Amino acid sequence: MTREELIFALDIGTRTVVGLVLEPTPEGLQIIASDVIEHENRAMLDGQIHNVIEVARAVQTIKDRLEEKVGQPLTKVAVAAAGRALQTAQQSHYMEFSTKHEITTEDVNTLELAAVQEAQKILAQDDKHKPGDYHFVGYSVIAYRLDDMHIGHLVGQKGKRIEVDIIATFLPGIVVDSLITVIQHADLTVQHMTLEPIAAANVVIPKEMHNFNLALVDIGAGTSDIAITRGGAIIAYAMVPIAGDEITEALAENYLLDYASSEKLKRSLTTQEKIQINDILGMTLEIDAREAITALQKPVEDLATLIADQILALNQKSPQAVLCIGGGSLTPLLTQKLAAKLELPPNRVGVKQATEIKGIIGEVTGLTSTQTITPIGIAMTSWENANRTTFIEIRLNAQRTTIFSLGTPTVADALLATDAPVAKLHGRPGMALTCKVNGQLKVIKGTMGQPGRLELNGQPAQLDTPISEGDELCYQPGQDGQSGIGVIKDVVTYAEPKTIILNATEVQVQTQVFMNDQLVKPDTPLIDGAEIKTSNVETYRETLMQILEVPANDLISREILISLNNRQKSLYLGNYHIKINGENLDLDLPVEEGAEIEVETVENHELTIKDLAERFSTCFEINIIFNDRELSIPTNYWEISRNGQAVTIDTIVKNGDQIICQAKPITFNRVLNFINYQIPESMSERLVMTINDQNASFTDTVKNGDVLEIKLV
After folding, report:
1. What is the DSSP string of 195-238?
2. What are the backbone dihedrals phi and psi of residue 507, each rounded to the nearest 5 degrees, phi first?
3. DSSP conformation class of 524
4. What is the b/e burial string over 564-593, where b = at least 16 CB atoms within 10 angstroms of the residue's CB?
5. Cα–Cα distance between 411 and 398 in angstroms, integer?
């Protein structure tokens, strides 16, 4: 027999280290040597190594003893990491293609591994760890979606968007690293590594039984590890942070025993009726086993409750059966209470024995049969994966990288271990920019992404390409395409512009465009998802809206009808005084090439009688010539009425008003009073007054345009 043919397996537990050496035979694995050693102190707590040197010393002792028994050196070992440290994370990920695309195996691999990588980042969100601090163990697909529809398999389907939901499992790097350090201190190398619950399930629940909904509970000293099978796979793992030690400590407290004596008492409860033991005071006690079991009712009830609650949380219901292994599973009353908590018949919760494992020949001495299941499972898993290396060193982009894998290492394992962006292997096409122009969808495509480069030892590789010790892997992520961009004139056709003259300045009038109800220019950047409406400028109103950049409401004129001196007048009022080719035209008339438009801002939007008179050239002053000097007599010498009521020139005009403006008789004397023309009384008899060269008196009336004169004779 050569040493390469032997399988050396170690189960490094909280209380004990178990070592097995097995030889492959045609009938199965033959146990040819075994050894068990208890830790001298609490070097491990709850399945985690706390004192590397102490644990390594125990491993070295086991190794030396087994080498002596088999007569040859042992250099490689199969081990298992504690299942309690396993981390799980659920994650979704999607990929989009620019057009309908036939989905390939590589597409699905990229999709799934990108989801794993995102799950890995979730575990590191406490800012204390990096994604690379977690070793990826495996994942299960929950569901696939193709173009937002659930589908069983993606490969071969056609679509633009694929999505996956996965549950990924990881081990914290500290768990793996401390275990490897212990092995290296004992001058060993890791031949194969697995997880304790996976190793146990491998021999207790073979793959052909994974369709059953079963719970495997490994009750050790510090922890109770749980694995759930359903639908053809192990779907979940969990840990309860109490186990056999809680029962031991309950006995120690009840009978005042040290830890070792209490452990001895616990192990004897199912084999002896009366147990003699010394307490911490040195007194010899004779303990009745039934009495001690009664004292354990409460702690056993608590342990059963915690295990049952965890099973229900993972499985959402009671499983079909519960299989218990490990030394703690022999605790009196535990299986009965667990069955009651899960509302299962007592015969559906049982303790599995190593003798029931197929393909194993021989026994392990120094342990109960159920305690040997995990180390046997480690050996069996290593044997079944004999051609799979779990720890290898490669160079990724010229950097040394150590890969941990529970199966055949692949390119994907290397990328996950180094936090390389798997999702970037295929550059995504840039997102298209879309908008609607007058209700019609317009699309500006993004640019295509550039594929990445993945080479193994200088040759093109895929994510599932196997890798081995010393390989050279080169990875360059792809480049995403640029998203579509554009401006208004890229999606809108403008009509031929017209030229007008606005306030003596020549301007051009063109198509009006509104994006999300805002007036925009041809070079305005497009907004994704925008609603765009266009209208060609056809009226003067639309012309002014575009040029002045004012809302339509500001240009709306309201029409009022009045009567001025018994003649009907139509008026348009607004924020602006607007004349087109010198006239007050309707703004909704078609705009003409070369039209001249004058626009004046109106500060007071109301119309007074004075404004009315000015608009219709009605004079409120009398213009005369007095002694060769031109004079204007103000309007307060006119009679003005609105709807029969006397008003002033500042009265506001309203729709339907009847307005009369009549000149008041003005006498020669009033003209003199207006200009403050004083006639000395001594000279009054010598004055000659004329109107239009006709003799006149102070009381004669004066009309607009009259020529008045006063002479001294």
Report:
1. EHHHHHHHHHS-GGGTTS-EEEEEE-SS-EEEEEEETTEEEEEE
2. -135, 160
3. P
4. beeeebebebeebebebeeeeeebeeebee
5. 15
Cβ within 8 Å of residue 8, ≥6 positions away: 19, 20, 21, 63, 66, 74, 76, 77, 78, 191
Q: How confident is the model at residue 336 (pLDDT cuts 50, 70, 90)?
A: very high
DSSP state of 482: P
Residue the block writes with tokens 């219901």? 317
- Please indicate whether residue 660 or residue 574 has the higher confidence score (pLDDT): 660
Which parts of 82-120 are beta strand (E)? 87-102
Task: Return d(Cα 366, Cα 422) in angstroms, integer.
Answer: 49
Mean of the pLDDT values across residues 400-408? 68
pLDDT per residue over 603-650, tens digit each? 556 778 777 777 765 656 778 899 989 988 775 566 788 898 888 878
Beta bridge partners of 658: 563
Domains of the chain: 207-356 (3.30.420.40), 392-483 (3.10.20), 486-605 (no CATH), 607-713 (3.10.20.30)
Residues 6+ apart with CB under 8 A from 653: 560, 562, 571, 607, 608, 609, 611, 612, 642, 659
Intra-chain end-to-end CA distance of the chain, in Å: 165
More confident residue, 511 or 418: 511
Average pLDDT value over all residues in the chain: 82
pLDDT tens per residue across span 5-21: 788 999 887 778 889 99
Tens digits of residue pLDDT in 547-563: 777 766 666 666 778 88
Q: How far apart are CA 466 and CA 439, in angstroms?
A: 53
The pLDDT, as a whole number, for residue 709 is 92
Side chain identity, residue 152: G
